[in-house]
């Protein structure tokens, strides 16, 4: 489960007297489907496994689909005001029908252009199972644009750019509500309060996120080669993994080709607490988004986490990232170019006081605009407006 969704539906909305029932599948093995009761709602957990085989993965998806069909029995035994589906396409079709049968409002939340991404990976050859990726992308797109968005009362999207992109595909822009990325500032501050003062920040540069080839992160390695010419004691760390072994193989090959084995490290996945610790212990954090249709509609979460920790950022021009960085001055926003990234990193390393001041501006921006609590208020206002009610002091999100 994505952290923002967990916080919003598991913590923030229940604080606002919203009861939430869940139809989800566990990430850890579950030998049987089961029900978990809580004060804030009921969790209907699907059976699952962690099999790496094709048959095992197919079985896992079938169990998840079967769990989604429980919506039909639930809507007649519970009076739901809203049925909310996030990033599930077949499940959204059953939920939309269940909403129509009972008069509940149906909302869909899309955090990433899954259809377009699957098709792009199939065409580029990056997909592990190319033909499966192509079929999945086509089915998701057909379901999304032909049915889900037409039936939905509200479509939550990840960014203003995603709203524009989907409007071009025929989705009514008046029913789309952008809910950009946000952070759990309380959790981040709790982690930071338990850390010793940074001792290794020095000239450490950090990237956190997926290492998928579609992001073309070898550009950062080329850029860092130039950084080392002025700061030979600097280091670059990557926190994250790819979806395919070749993702990391490509980066390691570039590291070896440039002779950067002692300066650039791939550290793999870490717990959230370790990620925040690593961010805190870095002099400069990187937020690269390769200019493409797929990535332009995203809302960069790692950028926000860097800012929440108060670290200066080097990022590139990107519809949402550019607006955020330029509005608060949290670092350097440059073009997608190795030389420009290198020059921006060097400028921040050369002037630590200005870099720290930029990091402070980023944190101030987060506190005012991008906490989970702020996003929770926005989503609650949408639900209340759908139900003919109004949230005190909130403007209409659907106007």
Structure at a glance:
With 399 residues, the protein is α/β, with parallel strands linked by helices.
What does this entry look like structurally?
This protein has 399 residues and is α/β, with parallel strands linked by helices. It contains 17 helices and 13 strands. It has helices spanning 3-15, 54-68, 71-77, 89-102, 114-124, 130-151, 160-168, 185-193, 218-230, 245-257, 272-280, 293-296, 301-309, 319-328, 338-350, 352-369, 372-386; strands at 22-25, 34-38, 41-46, 82-86, 105-110, 154-157, 176-178, 204-208, 235-239, 264-266, 284-287, 313-316, 331-334. A six-stranded parallel β-sheet has the order 10-9-8-11-12-13, with helices on both faces. Strands 4-5-6-7 form a four-stranded parallel β-sheet, sandwiched between helices. A three-stranded mixed β-sheet has the order 1-3-2. Helix 4 links the parallel strand 4 and strand 5. Helix 3 packs parallel to helix 4 (89-102), helix 4 packs parallel to helix 6 (130-151) and helix 5 (114-124) runs antiparallel to helix 6. The model has no long low-confidence stretch (mean pLDDT 91).
How are the SSEs placed, and which strands pair?
Layout: H1 3-15, E1 22-25, E2 34-38, E3 41-46, H2 54-68, H3 71-77, E4 82-86, H4 89-102, E5 105-110, H5 114-124, H6 130-151, E6 154-157, H7 160-168, E7 176-178, H8 185-193, E8 204-208, H9 218-230, E9 235-239, H10 245-257, E10 264-266, H11 272-280, E11 284-287, H12 293-296, H13 301-309, E12 313-316, H14 319-328, E13 331-334, H15 338-350, H16 352-369, H17 372-386
Parallel strand pairs: 1-3, 4-5, 5-6, 6-7, 8-9, 8-11, 9-10, 11-12, 12-13
Antiparallel strand pairs: 2-3
Helix pairs in contact: 1-17, 3-4, 4-6, 5-6, 9-15, 13-16
């Amino acid at each position: 489960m994505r952290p923002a969704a967990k916080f919003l539906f598991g913590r923030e909305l229940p604080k606002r007297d919203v009861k939430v029932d869940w139809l989800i599948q566990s990430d850890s093995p579950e030998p049987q489907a089961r029900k978990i009761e809580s004060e804030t709602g009921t969790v209907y957990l699907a059976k699952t496994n962690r099999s790496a085989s094709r048959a095992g993965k197919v079985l896992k998806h079938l169990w998840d689909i079967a769990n989604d069909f429980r919506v039909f029995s639930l809507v007649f035994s519970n009076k739901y005001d809203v049925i909310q589906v996030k990033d599930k396409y077949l499940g959204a079709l059953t939920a939309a029908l269940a909403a129509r049968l009972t008069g509940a409002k149906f909302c869909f939340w899309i955090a990433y252009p899954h259809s377009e991404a699957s098709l792009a990976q199939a065409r580029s050859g990056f997909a592990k199972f190319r033909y499966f990726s192509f079929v999945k992308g086509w089915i998701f797109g057909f379901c999304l644009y032909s049915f889900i968005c037409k039936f939905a009362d509200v479509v939550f999207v990840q960014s203003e750019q995603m709203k524009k992109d989907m409007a071009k595909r025929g989705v009514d822009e008046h029913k789309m509500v952008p809910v950009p990325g946000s952070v759990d500032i309380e959790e981040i501050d709790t982690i930071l309060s338990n850390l010793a003062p940074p001792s290794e920040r020095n000239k450490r540069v950090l990237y956190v996120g997926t290492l998928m080839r579609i992001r073309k992160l070898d550009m950062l390695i080329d850029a860092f080669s130039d950084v080392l010419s002025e700061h030979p004691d600097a280091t670059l760390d990557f926190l994250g993994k790819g979806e395919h072994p070749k993702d990391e193989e490509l980066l390691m090959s570039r590291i070896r080709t440039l002779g950067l084995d002692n300066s650039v490290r791939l550290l793999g996945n870490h717990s959230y607490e370790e990620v925040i610790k690593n961010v805190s212990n870095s002099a400069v954090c990187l937020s690269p988004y390769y200019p493409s249709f797929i990535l332009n509609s995203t809302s960069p979460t790692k950028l926000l986490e860097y800012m929440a920790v108060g670290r200066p950022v080097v990022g590139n021009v990107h519809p949402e990232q550019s607006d955020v960085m330029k509005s608060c001055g949290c670092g350097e926003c440059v073009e997608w170019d190795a030389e420009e990234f290198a020059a921006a990193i060097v400028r921040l390393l050369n002037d630590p006081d200005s870099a720290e001041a930029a990091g402070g501006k980023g944190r101030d921006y987060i506190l005012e605009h991008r906490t989970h609590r702020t996003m929770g208020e926005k989503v609650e206002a949408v639900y209340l407006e759908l139900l003919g009610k109004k949230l005190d002091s909130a403007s209409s999100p659907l106007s």
